[in-house]
Amino acid sequence: MHPDVLKLGLVSFLTDLSSEMVFAVFAVFFTTVAGASTALLGLIEGLADFSASALNYLAGWLSDRSGRRKGLVVAGYGFSTLAKAILLLSSSIAALAWFRVIERLGKGFRGPPRDAWLASMAPEKSRGYAFGVHKALDKAGAVLGPLVAYGVLSWWGESASTYRLLFAVALVPALASVLVLLWVQEPPGVPQARARFGASWQQLSPAFKRFLLPAGVFALAYFSLGFLLLKAHTLGFSVTEIVLLYAGFNLVCVLAAPLVGWLGDRVGRRHIVLLGYALYAALNLWLVWAGSRWEMVAVFVLYGLFYAVEDSQSKAFIADLEPERRATALGAYSGMTGLLYLPASLLAGALWSVAPGWAFGTAAALAGVAMGVLLCRPPGGGGV
């Protein structure tokens, strides 16, 4: 494995360590401490996903056009780091909403260039494993972050001053991630100076474009994890217990991601993507009727397995389908799915206000439709 895969993994580890300290408590803090409604949570989470995707296509196109990755990646991580300072200034509903949206803008700008950079480090036969290892390091930070949040809340109690302390602690690894990234050397790339922004879509492969249809349908089913955390809260889990559940979910993802990537290298990544869709549909069906604490623990474990499949292997699959304009394709994919996450989260928030089971049942049905579309219209390409 290329050593820079591990270095980029360390950057993601530190960033997730920072972000997940906040996200582990955000949904409950936003609704119970700040006093926002679940409908507003759905709107903010949808806007956050939208902001994370708004710059994806532009960032990918800029990266392919210049042949450079690092500058855009540094800018994206730096922007997310600066956004966390908002939490130190105010804990109002408006400030929390602005933080959630602005912080995701940085993610959107860094994602496609970083994933294209990562794909260029690994040959096709081991690309899934490289993405899996990177995801494992990324989510290792998401394991430690909630545990740090748990320690802070357990030691000092669930008060407004403790949350402010937690937000201050979260800023430290975010700053460290940018410093580590500055030390990673970028290999020379191949610029595509003639790639005009308006014509870049036509230059993408038909196989990649076919994959966007099932991916888009699935995006409509993929509402924010915050609703899963709220489901646990309604079943009697305290905020500190929810933080532990969230850490467990991320731990499963860490352990499963390299194995899932290795498996995808051997059986074909399309089959692994289908597995992710099926697992998500089954989990949401279970959540319609889940009513006990042990069921929620099991759901969080299986959700970690799903996340190991969906978040890394779809990107490895796209890198196979589009070998020349990877950053543009990854940006188009992230941009399209992010646009659809907004109505998905709005729908989930609205259905939740009627009955939580309606939100989970709708997600299961849409995931089943996405499976059918991917089976009936396979994109083809390498690694499938």
Overview of the structural elements:
This protein has 384 residues and is mostly helical. The protein has a single domain (3-182, 203-376), classed as Growth Hormone, Chain: A, CATH 1.20.1250.20. It has helices at residues 3-33, 38-54, 56-66, 70-83, 86-89, 93-120, 124-156, 160-183, 206-221, 226-234, 239-267, 269-289, 293-321, 326-354, 356-376. Helix 3 packs parallel to helix 6, helix 3 runs antiparallel to helix 14 and helix 9 runs antiparallel to helix 15. The protein starts with a helix and ends in an 8-residue tail after the last helix. The mean pLDDT is 84.
Quick summary:
With 384 residues, the chain is mainly alpha-helical. It is built from 15 helices and no strands.
Number of domains: 1
Task: Provide the succession of SSEs.
Answer: HHHHHHHHHHHHHHH
The name CATH uses for the topology is Growth Hormone, Chain: A
Q: What's the total number of strands?
A: 0
Return the average pLDDT rounded to an integer.
84
Number of helices: 15
- CATH top level assignment: Mainly Alpha
Which descriptors apply to this entry?
384 residues, mainly alpha, Growth Hormone, Chain: A
Give the helices and strands, then pairings.
Layout: H1 3-33, H2 38-54, H3 56-66, H4 70-83, H5 86-89, H6 93-120, H7 124-156, H8 160-183, H9 206-221, H10 226-234, H11 239-267, H12 269-289, H13 293-321, H14 326-354, H15 356-376
Helix pairs in contact: 1-6, 1-7, 1-8, 1-10, 2-6, 2-14, 3-6, 3-14, 4-6, 4-8, 6-14, 7-8, 7-11, 7-13, 9-14, 9-15, 11-12, 11-13, 12-13, 12-15, 14-15
